[in-house]
Amino acid sequence: MVTGILDYIWLVPALPLLGVLLNGAIALFCERPLLLAEAAHGDGGHGHGDAHTVDKAHGTHSLGPSSLGTSAPVGEGHGASPAPYRKLVAFIGPAVVGAAFVVSVLAVLALAARPAHDRFFVQVLFPWIQAGGFSAPAALQLDPLSSVMILVVTGVGFLIHVYSAGYMSHEKAFARYFVYLNLFTFAMLTLVLGSNYLVMFVGWEGVGLCSYLLIGYWYEKKSASDAGKKAFIVNRIGDFGFMLGVFLIFWTFGTVNYTEVFAKVPFLSSSGVLTTEIATAITLLLFIGAIGKSAQIPLYVWLPDAMEGPTPVSALIHAATMVTAGVYMVARSNALFLLSPVSMGVVATVGAATAIFSATIGITQNDIKRVLAYSTVSQLGYMFLACGVGAFTAGIFHLMTHAFFKALLFLGSGSVIHALSGEQDMRKMGSLKKHLPITFTTMFIATLAIAGIPGLSGFFSKDEILWKAFSSEHGHIALWAVAALAAGITAFYMFRLVFLTFFGESRMEPEVEKHVHESPYSMTVPLMLLAVLSVVGGWIGIPEVLKGHNYFEEWLAPVFSHGAAGAHGAAHHPVALELGLMAGSVAVALCGIGLAYYLYRVRTNKPKEIAEAVPGLYDVVLNKYYVDEIYDFLFVRRIVNGSIVLWQAFDVAFIDGIVNGIASAVRGAGEGVRRLQTGVVGNYAFSLLLGAVLLVGYILTR
Amino acid sequence: MMEPTAYLLLSGILFGIGVAGVVARKNALIILMSVEIMLNAVNVAFIAVGSHLGDPTGSIFAFMVMTVAAAEAAVGLAILIAIFRLKETIDITELSVLKW
Fold this sequence. Notes:
The complex is a heterodimer. Chain A is mostly helical. Chain A has helices at residues 11-40, 44-51, 56-59, 65-71, 84-112, 144-167, 174-193, 197-215, 222-253, 258-271, 276-293, 302-305, 311-320, 325-332, 334-337, 341-364, 368-388, 392-419, 437-451, 457-471, 477-502, 510-513, 521-536, 551-556, 564-569, 575-602, 606-613, 615-622, 627-673, 681-701; strands spanning 121-131, 134-142. In chain A, a hairpin with a 2-residue loop joins strand 1 and strand 2 (134-142). By secondary structure, chain B is an all-alpha fold. Helices cover 77% and strands 0% of the residues of chain B. Chain B has helices at 5-24, 28-53, 57-87. The radius of gyration of chain B is 17 Å and the shape is elongated. The termini of chain B are far apart.
């Protein structure tokens, strides 16, 4: 009975895959002919013009009668009857993920019913790769860590699928969107449920592919397709490191299965096979993969550009799930990371540096989604900081709470964009509180959570990280200081966002303002559910000093038994210190909020004055420290120029030279030899005779 | 049994005359006739050697060659007549359309 549901764990990734197949069939055989027929009728060009104005697609109907006419044939909300397949897609897409969530909950409950040391379940689906002594089965592993991940992926994923059904309802390529989204869910579940590094790599590449497809969903828009390519290429750099790391693991351990690798760690490190240097190499290579996928310095540049995709995609892939894959992978490999102090230091330093670096960029951005994108990069930095100081539990805890409140923030911003007919510039918002009450309330809760206001989920997870950064044996007071400062900046820019968007006077375009409306229930209900999770999500990990019980740490303890050292380190510090630091970080957050209130509510012209007072600094930050430009100059230009040289010197001159050279040599030879064909029969007869004489002469003299 | 040397010598001379005719002459009719001389040179050699060895195969082959030569002469002359009707000449140096 207890293991009964666990045997069906394969359903968790299989259900979204079923969705991919069903929606894929609909997209190919129903939607595609429809879109092609529409394009053939000539109004397709105009219609696509509407579609690729990104998030404006919904709002265009309110901007003028001409756009209403073009999007009417497929738009549900325009009164015209929608194509029947759209309802089916809107049902299948969320339903399969919802069903996967139900299976996940049942499976995790079954797992929780077991004693703590026995909470581990592997299901081998089929032997996948077998060569000599090497075997990598396609197997799923459910343990406390992967159960947290599948609950987050399917739970938050389900809400975002439901939201998408409303948000994307005016898109022409509706089924295609849900195919990608379901495929992403499948790949992400494969990533977190795989029982070895190869299965994880399959999921790792799968989510990268879906990320590329969804960023470039409006592929007719150049910036979107460019952003998709950028994300894919930058991720490849990381993937390369990840692959090398896995190769090195195989070379060292002779296996890539988690259980066997981690079981061999104590033995191999005591026998001298697994030296600290090898552990450092493995973990740093793996961390390069994590840097790419989780958008850390120096490979974070793709994530802000990824905001070109639809907003629910930003919420699901580029905030809640995929970008946390790196954190999951580092946490999963904790036994290896803990062997190498250098790697731990690198992870913590990169995390802290990213946290503060991208937080400062977040201050100056005016695009609502870009602020959230930099905020995501910054929060991912916190998670890596936690992993780097050995507090893997805190990192995963923050991963979970961040998934709740950052998904909520993105979906809320989507609701705002939806209401404003596609406007994303916060300078053209304001006073939306009265127009969008539900969106405002839920987003405000999420903002309080991310700012670290006590009682909400973000407070517990972020404070856990700050405390561990200070107290853990891998920690350092400088890491704590940087992280605390970043927390203050986070509070500042998030409240800047809220004040600019929802408070003050309206700075909307008059045309846009006429049509401001609250979103439909399919969008607001997920917002409300996520708001509830943003509040209560942290209550399962209330630290001891606050008279709570950290159920979350207890739950993950079997996976992070090696990491317990970091947690025990805390025991040396007095309770008063922990409470003091906690109060300090809250004070920093309140300072950030207060500053935001002062600058954006009381003295609203002050930000401009400050910007004008330090124009150089402001410009540098506004332009994201010119990192994109520097990369462009240092790497992209070099590679492009090098490719041009290769193209012209190697491909055109050398390869083509060989091929064309052979051709013209043969041609030249033929040019000469054809003169032998005189057309005079006597000559032929003579050559015949000559041949005969030579032949006979050869035979005779042999 | 008689020695075939003289016959073979005759055959060689005839063959040489034929070859010289084929290579040197321009008139297609003469060339055709030269080919016939070459074929008959071979016939002489066949029969001489066959009679020397007491083997009838040589004579059989000679008859065979004569048949083929007759057929070939018929076809060759027919072609020549067709060419002459078209070009009003059978000079092979002027019949050199099939060239580069």
